Structure formats: C-alpha cells, structure tokens
Automatic annotation (TrEMBL):
Protein's name in the database: Alpha 1,4-glycosyltransferase domain-containing protein
Lineage per the UniProt record: Eukaryota, Viridiplantae, Streptophyta, Embryophyta, Tracheophyta
Domain Alpha 1,4-glycosyltransferase: 283-405
Gene3D superfamilies: 3.90.550.20
Source organism: Gossypium arboreum
Top-level taxon: Eukaryota
Pfam family, one: Gly_transf_sug
Length: 410
C-alpha cells in the first residue's frame, strides 16, 4: 500500500509538467483571443471615426448670395479657434467664423437714431472749427494721454467744437471724464454714431452689410482700428471738418487749413512725398477725395495687413488722383503733423543728460512751435513712455494744456 501510494505520488509528479504546459497554453490562447477581439474593435472604431470625419469634411454649405443656391465646399473645421478653412479650386483661404452685428459700433437703438440731430444741434453754436475724434474702445481706456489731446484742441481753439464719436464715451462715465472741460465752457460732446446712417449711399454701405452678415473677413487686425479708419472718412464726407487721432497734440490753430492731408515721409532727394497718413484729415463736406477714400476702403479692404485700409489706402488714392481735375487738396510736408518719425518718437519724452541735449531740446521746441500744427505721438510706440519734466514733450504738453493735470504721466 505504501509502495502503491509512493507509486501514485511518483506518477503525479511526472505528469505535473504536462499539466502546467496545458494550463500555460490555455492562458496564452485566452490572451491571444482577447487581443484579436480588441484589435477588431479598435479597427471598427477607427473606421467609424474616419467615416464621421469624411462626413464632416464634405458638408453642403449654404451661402447667402442667392436664395436656394447651394455650394458644396470641403471644409476643415477647428472648433477650438473657430476658424473655417475653405478648400476650393482657387486654393485655400481662411476666414473667421463669426458674425459681427453684435459689435457695439453696429448697434442701432434710440440713442443712435438721434445722431444726426445731435450733430446738427451741437455744431450750431458758433463753432470756430469743427473737430472730430473717434473712440471705439472701453470708456475706462480713455486716459490721461487722450484727455491731453482733447485739451490741446481747446488751447489752440477756445471757440472750437469737438465731437467724439463713441458709444462707450456717450455714457455717464464718459460725461464725468469730459465734465472738467465742460465746466470751463469748452464745447465737447461724446456721441454714439449711427454707422449705417453715415455710410448710407456711399460705397461703404455694401461693405458694412457684408461685414455684418459674415460674408467679409474682418481679418487679424483689430476690427476697431479699421472701423475707425472708415468712421473718420464717413463723418468728414457727411459733415466736413477736421479729424484728429486721440494721440495728437495740437500746437496751433487749424483755422487756415482747408482740404488738407499730411505727408508722413518724403524722399530726401526729390522732396516728393512717399507716404501719407490719415491721423489728421481736414476736408469740406462731400469732398470728392474723401469719397474716393471711402470707395477704395470698401473695394480693397484687407483686415490682415496693417495700414492697408488707413495710411497706405490714402497714399494709394492720392497717388492715383494727384493732379487730376476736380480734386482740389493740399499735401503738407511731414513737419506739419508728423515732425518725428514713429521710430524716433521716444526722443521727445526723454530728459536731457547734458548741455548739448538741453540745447537740442530748446531748438526742437522752437522749431515745432514755428513750423508744426501738432505732433502725432504714435501711441503704439510711446503709450508706455513717461513724459519726463524738461523733455520736449513735457514742454509741449505743459504749454498746450487747459486743465494741466497729470501732464507728466502717461
């Protein structure tokens, strides 16, 4: 019995490797089966995802050119950046997938409906010169530099009238900002513009409709910048007067100027202008050159090129019509409005370090007083610079302010 028992134990030990191999084989087969099933599932999911992507790639897009007209266009949609990429036979283009009627300057309400009447009433008070500025930004951004620009208008034109075209400034907070000037009897008013009214019956009317409906690409340049470019043209064409950027310090009266635009740069040899700028515009109502500016803006609008719809636009138009009959206007040299290039504007803010720099400042201030109507500050380059007391800009601001608070602040 013991031997038999011993024999049984011997047999079990001899069979144990066989059993182990069978169990191992079953385990490997199970794992292989799971792998095959998983692979089949993944391939099926990938196929479904690919099929869904192909469906997304080729929807039918309805454009609002005509009713019931369908254009099948392959699209690649990026939901993260809200950019639609259009692939067609003309190549690949990009446009922002956004409609813009919600932009504050496009809004029409009871306030904007009063725009025309408010303009006529405001300028019907013996204004020496009619000035316009635009402000398409938050009211809180209208700071000390902008107030200084407004002050300089009234220092040179105590009986002038300044209208700031701005929905945000046409508010209680905007009124508080301008109140110190109003308390001193200066005629300044912020008015929410009626943009559709201003461009009505001009080439920009169709441009505005396309922009609001989403047919036109606003581009990468901040839309406010290009809206200001158009708004200044529209208001001058409608009413006539002087347009000034809010980063412009007036040094002397504009009263003698008529139908004038300024050169930003000239050729040092020929003395012919090479580029104009639209930071200062002086034009009569319904002037043909201003209408030509509006037409060029609407027809060649490009929201992705800086200056294309502003300084470069006015330069293109004037180059095309200069010398032609029917366009009567004057181009002033850079010293009139742009006496310092944008790359060198910082030199006007610095305090002199030695006697040579003091002499330069004295000479520069004297030159500007004699030859310049005002100085464009190129805020994009100079907005963060402090106005140091004793600098050229410090001298000019101190002499051309009316409130004279925070003159040496940005």
């Amino acid at each position: 019995m013991a031997a038999k028992s011993f024999g049984c134990r011997v047999v079990n030990r001899s069979k144990s490797p066989v059993v182990f191999m069978i169990l191992f084989a079953l385990l490997m087969f199970s794992m292989l089966a799971d792998s095959i099933v998983s692979k089949i599932s993944l391939e099926s999911a990938a196929f479904n995802q690919k099929r869904d992507y192909q469906v997304l790639q080729s929807p039918k897009v309805v454009r609002n050119f005509k009713r019931n007209v369908v254009f099948p266009l392959p699209l690649t949609v990026s939901t993260q950046n809200k950019i639609i990429r259009v692939d067609n036979e003309h190549g690949i283009g990009k446009f922002r997938r956004r409609r813009l009627p919600e932009h504050e300057v496009f809004m029409s309400d009871e306030l904007t409906k009063k725009f025309h009447g408010r303009v006529l009433e405001f300028f019907n008070h013996g204004c020496e010169v009619h000035f316009f500025m635009t402000w398409i930004a938050k009211v809180g951004s209208f700071g000390r530099r902008e107030i200084m620009a407004v002050e300089s208008v009234f220092k040179a034109h105590p009986n002038g009238c300044l209208m700031i075209l701005s929905r945000t400034m046409d508010s209680v907070q905007g009124y508080r900002i301008l109140k110190p000037l109003l308390d001193r009897g200066f005629k300044v008013l912020a008015v929410a513009p009626d943009f559709p009214f201003l461009v009505k019956n001009t080439p920009a009317e169709a441009w505005l409709d396309d922009m609001k409906s989403g047919k036109k690409d606003p581009g990468e340049i901040p839309l406010a910048q290009n809206l200001s470019n158009l708004l200044r043209l529209a208001v001058l064409y409608k009413y006539g007067g002087v347009y000034l950027d809010t980063d412009f310090i007036v040094l002397r009266s504009f009263k003698g100027l008529k139908n004038t635009i300024g050169a930003q740069s000239i050729d040092v040899v020929s003395k012919n202008w090479t580029r104009l700028n639209n930071a200062v515009l002086v034009f009569d109502m319904n002037h043909p050159l201003v209408l030509k500016f509006i037409e060029e803006f609407a027809l060649t609008f490009d929201g992705n090129k800086w200056g294309h719809n502003g300084p470069y636009m006015v330069s293109r138009v004037v180059r095309g019509v200069e010398g032609r009959a029917g366009y009567n206007f004057t181009i002033l040299p850079p010293m009139a409005f742009y006496p310092v290039d944008w790359m060198k504007i910082g030199s006007l803010f610095k305090l002199p370090n030695d006697s040579a720099e003091w002499r330069w400042i004295e000479a520069k201030v004297l030159q500007l007083k004699r030859q310049t109507y005002g100085v464009h500050l190129w805020n994009k380059q100079s907005s963060k610079l402090m106005v140091e007391e004793g600098s050229v800009m410090g001298r000019l601001m101190a002499e051309n302010c009316v409130l004279c608070k925070h003159v040496y602040s940005s």
